Amino acid sequence: MSESYPSSTARLVVGVSGSPGSLTALVRAADEARRRGAELWPVLAWVPPGGELAARRSPAAAVMVPEWERLARERLLDALRDVCGDTGSWLPGQALVARGTPGPALVQIADREDDVIVVGAGRRGLLHRGLGPSVGRYCLAHAGCPVLAVPPSPLQAVLEAAHRRNVLRLRLDTRRLQREFDTVPPGT
């Protein structure tokens, strides 16, 4: 990951994890890259299960690293297919799988002034902030380039509410759900 990628074109470095928020960020980054004539660099950062310290302590982890990298690459390709389809009509750029935590990996890759980091800014309540670090907050605090934090799709909250109702085995009001879908602008 410490390699330098010489290019005169601006890059949009977007964090991709496969989550709905990261897919929304990927769509926005692709639109921005087309609009600006920039390269699109989707990045999936991964950490070994149990963290780096556990991986260094376990001799079995060294054997598993290629498999974990393969799984990360597949997850990135699945996310790209979800957004772009199988047509392969991608913008110029490079898809990267980086070993490390997402925030520092994105900041390290987006090392030029004309780069832009694009991250999904999911709904973060007080509980979520206490449980885990925010990639967007890390990038905003440490990046030497602009950071675009993309809010979640309005449909994400509706789908999460439907999922909670399903988990609690509560009746789902499909008419209300349909009204919510109808109020969302096209292309969101």
List the keywords.
alpha/beta; 5-stranded parallel sheet; 8 helices; 5 strands; globular; 188 residues; disordered N terminus; 51% helix
Tell me the span between the first and last alpha carbons. 33 Å
Helical proportion?
40-55%
Order of helices and strands: EHEHHEHEHHEHH
- Please give the count of helices: 8
| Nearest-integer average pLDDT | 81
Structural class by sheet pairing and helices: alpha/beta
Largest sheet geometry: 5 strands, parallel
Strand percentage, roughly?
A: 5-15%
Pick out the low-confidence regions.
1-5
The radius of gyration is: 18 Å
Structure at a glance:
With 188 residues, the chain is an alpha/beta fold. The chain has helices at residues 20-36, 51-57, 59-84, 102-109, 126-131, 135-142, 154-167, 174-183, and strands spanning 11-15, 39-46, 96-99, 116-120, 147-150.
Give a verbal description of the structure.
With 188 residues, the chain is of the alpha/beta class. The chain contains 8 helices and 5 strands. Helix 1 (20-36) links the parallel strand 1 and strand 2 (39-46). It is globular and about 50 Å long. The relative contact order is 0.17.
Question: What is this structure's SSE topology?
Answer:
Elements: E1 11-15, H1 20-36, E2 39-46, H2 51-57, H3 59-84, E3 96-99, H4 102-109, E4 116-120, H5 126-131, H6 135-142, E5 147-150, H7 154-167, H8 174-183
Parallel strand pairs: 1-2, 1-4, 2-3, 4-5
